[in-house]
Predict the 3D structure of the following.
Amino acid sequence: MIGEPAAALAVVLDHEGIEHATGSGSSLLYTLPSEHLPVVALLAVLPLFALAVQLLAPRWSLPARLREGYRARPPLHRLAAWLIAVSAVVHLGLIGHHEGVLGALMILDGLLLAGVVGLLLTGRRWRLPAAVILGGSLAAWWAVTLAGQAPDQLALLTKLVEVGALAMVLTPTAGARVRGWMASMLVIVLVVVTDAAAWAGTFRQASDLGHMGGASQPGMLMGHAPDRPATPTEIAAANAVWQATATALAPFRDPLIATANGYQVEGVFGLDFHAQNEAYQHDGRIMDPARPEHLIYAEGPDGPVLLGAMFEMPDGAGPGPAVGGPLTVWHAHEHVCFGLLPLGMTGLLSPLGSCPVGSVDITRTPEMIHVWVAEGAPVHWGELDDAWKADYVARAGTSADR
Amino acid sequence: MDITTRSADPVGRLDLVGVIRCLVFLQGALLVASVVEATVFLSFVGPSGAGAVLLTALAAALTLLAAAGIARRSRRARRWTFVAEVGVLLLAAVDVALAAILGGQMPATSLVMRVVIPVVVIVLLRRAEVRVAFGVRSAGGAA
């Protein structure tokens, strides 16, 4: 085994009193913002409206007509009516949340959807208008999302409701087999495109605004960096940990030594392969330069190239010690899909709410921080640019002294 | 995968089967989207994700077939759908438990797709008129 941590770093291992970063900034993709909660509450207007129709039907003609129109519909169309009404209420409930053309379109969409429900309940032809308006609503949302407006859970739920309603609207009557197949294909395409648009919009917004705009990359929970420069003490502490780590990691340039020390180096691929050490993950030690929980390798032309390491907090241990203040900001991950067959990460939770089959949703991981020991790395902590990594790996492949 | 509903019921009560078929079909479509996602993630997570892609593709195909079987009033499709929905609920329960332990929350879309819709499908599949539509006399026996 590699040697014990340097005594000078005892302050790191005993991290009581060191400023902690608080993990936050959950992606909008998995969040229902508090300002949208009243819109959800507004949905209670629908059963109240239904109750009013039921009570007033014996006295007034319009409620009676609506009630009879509803009862005359088969269950599939009744459910479609409810779903379209939900979408209408959400759109109208968002008045004031969006400005300009987008706000006007939301109102128009809400009114048109409400009109479709009216057509359905009064026994008029409704399926073609419903298909056109629901399709238009989805297409408009794709455009807005792809332009870089990340969706939240309310938007995603509303789009799921609209796709479900559209599936019911498109369901043909008996005998229309070809139309049934086409409708099926269309619904699948709508779901896939809606999912893809949600991903694209979220990543685009995160890329455009970064963490400063409050937009996290999906799956990433960044700690808050203290809004001040690092103090001389923090700089010294960060440098001490980095230096100790760089020294401790030197032997692991040889993957065989890493394997002998318990790191799972097999199958290195890409620029960011994390070779974990299960024993170190459960040893209860925090930010021990001699026992990082993961080594980070890139796939080089002549084998794995060591780039750095990743410290990981023990399960349930809370935030990591920000020994270097704003220089050492820890992060965590949210909604990671972890496959059980075989064990390993399989992706991130879908915007539409599912992991691949055979995977569980890890809602929140322990906090972790990257440390980069590759020679000449532009940063020692946090995120390292992929282009730099690729260039380093290419140079390492031609260097004899790697 | 044909989503045509064959309703010979003049009052439309049997069209509850159409509702079930639509919900199961939506689940299948979502699994197709999940296959696409998992395939894209393969480039990030490496070969360990291949098993998930295959499993999800298999589940998507079976779910879409089940939706088609439900439209045909197939008793086997009803039975398999029932079992699959219970399985989805159990896995959702695992995720809810994990979220409670790890301190996160299941997003609303997860709850709808993995709890609400399976519960609705199970409840509808057990309704008397639906059992009749599938030619099932009781919850456990066939006509």
